[in-house]
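Before a computer can learn anything about folding, someone has to put a protein's shape into writing. The three-dimensional part falls to structure tokens, numbers that each stand for a local backbone shape. The protein below has been through that process, and both of its lines are reproduced in full.
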Amino acid sequence: MKRRQFLQGSAFFTVVAATSGLLSACGGSTNDGGPGEFVFPQGIASGDPKDNSVVFWARIVRRNGAIAAATIAVRLEVSATQDFSALAAQANLTATADYDFTVRAKVTQLKPDTVYYYRFVAGSDVSVVAQTKTAPLASASNSQVRFAWFTCQDWSVNHWQAMSLLAQENLDFVVHVGDYIYETVGASFQTGGAEPAHQPITLPDGLAHPGGGVYANTVNDYRTLYRTYKTDARLQSIHHKFPVIAIWDDHEFSDDCWQDHQVYTNQNKQETARRRSATQAWAEYTPIDFGDLSFDLNNSSYQNIRIYRDFRFGQLVHLVMTDERLYRDDHIVSEQSVAQQAGHDPVNGDDSIGARYFVPRATLLQMEAQETAKLGRPPSILGTTQTQWWKDTLKNSDATWKVWGNEIMLNRMWADLSPPALGIPAPYNQLYVINCDSWDGYPSHKAELLSYLNTQNIKNVVAITGDLHAFQCGVVRANPADPGSAPVLVDFLAAGISSQSFYNYIKSGAAVVNPLLGALVQTPQIFDSLLKGFNPDFAYVDHDAQGYASATVTSDSIVVVFNKVKTLAADKSAPPQPLLKRTRITLAKGSSTPQIEDNI
């Protein structure tokens, strides 16, 4: 078997080719360890499926913790049959403390559109058997693609029963659009309690968070979070059944981050070492195809990794995954400037409201013009190189449906509080951009991408999105400020698995903007109705929700189902029957009018 090692000969990433014939299963151990010496506490996983390859992942440790620094010999076995009577591929790997005893291997020369079974062997101990599936050839005339996507799984809040529902689905793959972990424990937004299965996490090197609790600071802290999150059996069941295509958002490093800066306070402190630690732990614990991408621990920059990439699933689906944190410019409205105008602490204070949330649109446009003059270009989310890659990839795609794996909201979400009938006094009676950490907060860059889709006549584009902790479906136009401009894509936004809903965040923060806003967010229904009135391109909204989304794609349509789950019971237990309701949204090929069927 051909074999390559990455990271200057380290054991981080291995590539092996499947055999043209069939290997006999070894049946033996990898070393002298007796039965029960090794365990796989985080389960096993696969990811980044191509038409001829898949990446496989595991973490292996000694049961009693003995000789923690010693390496562990591990064997990956891949078979087309559940009994492993013959192997399609095998790889001898080494788990080391350098990478927290995680291993990953890419197996190439697999057959397209094929289910494979896999397991890992350490000593005399064998992991659970899991399954994965390769993608069909890009030229294949496939009749259907089914996938789901999920996001925002905060261990410290609510429950993860939505994962049980997701694992029961019949899917080709699953996408994670970010916030696989939350870097904070016990922060002020992590309130309301968590199910008993999720006990509090202790971060070994955690630092005090200005908003309460602690936040991850070192690679050991971030590893602790991944180790803990991945022990949940429901999350493991998803990884054991489907290949997962993952991208990060902010909480894999720091809430609302940009590049290597955290924004817990107005200082926007640069933390390169912390960013690199977060990146390393993500790379260690995510089955991503570094055979085609890049990750270099010897590069001292915070941009020592590239994770934006694309996937083809026959003629039907071209999935384009973007990185919307590592290359983004600072939020356009400076927290320090807002603090200074309000007489607040410009360094240690938190003026996210006014800078990143509930920003007057006139202020946003004024500051964008100033920042554009400084940078010589409009402030960007994707960065220059990734933007060009995104354009080229979509322009050159011949797939029926172009699916953008997009972390943050593309839908326009403004609040026009200027009408006298609302009774909002000056200076609060303005047009607000509600969330400037989303695409709305970078209006020229957003318009650049959307107008490109329009001028290049790129059709049947949909975005699958997370981050907001809400369900949304909306039409996104070439010029979001012009309701008469051409519709260019539909944004399907999935609620978080467990995180507090966007409505709850807004309700608690409305009084900070103005006490009179309380009446506008008195109930979720009032809030949703107002937002749809302010933003008529919303086809569906539910801003008080947890759950996930699934999609069925054919040559004629994409059908998305929003799966909303119940919250914790009064005794803080997770609901054994978690489904609250399903909403089905159908978008026909060539259409920009989603059809809504609620409570199906």
